Amino acid sequence: MDTLFIALFEILSFGAIVVLVVLGLGIIASMMGIFNFAQGEFVLLGAYITYLVHSAGLPVAVGMVAAPFAVGALGLVLERLVVWRFYAAPIVAMLGTYALGLIIRESVRGLIGGLPSASALCISRPGASSL
């Protein structure tokens, strides 16, 4: 029965993350007038920054606080250098943000490799077993 509750909690947690990403995409599309196809890659960068901070020996919570600021700063730089040129042509903007997403994704893949890597659990639960 405990496994069922844990599975339901994990499903709801993942669903909440997906809803937040979709809402972010909708807000960006309505405010900027273009669709940002690199939205998922910015989420990837946040997860990667959190992983790097944890790999450096700091708590995961520090990475979770640092990641939005780092990704926000990178997003601001990319918007000022690249995306603003596309505001007049929405189709070109979609292609440009898709290209940015490919660059971000393949850069992260080149840095960490194509194979999945494990990390320690960030939240310890009473009675939880280690994997």
Note the topology.
Elements (H helix, E strand, L loop, with lengths): L1 H31 L6 H17 L4 H22 L8 H23 L19
Helix pairs in contact: 2-3, 2-4
What does this structure look like?
Helix 2 crosses helix 3 (60-81). The chain has four helices and no strands. The protein has a domain at 34-112. With 131 residues, the protein is mainly alpha-helical. It has helices at residues 2-32, 39-55, 60-81, 90-112.
Rg from C-alpha positions? Answer: 17 Å
Number of strands: 0
Q: Decide which structural class fits the backbone.
A: mainly alpha
User: Low-confidence stretches at least 5 residues in length (pLDDT < 50)?
Assistant: none
Mean pLDDT: 83
Number of helices: 4
Q: Which features does this protein show?
A:
4 helices, 0% strand, single chain, 131 residues, 71% helix, mainly alpha
Compact description:
The chain has 131 residues and is mainly alpha-helical.
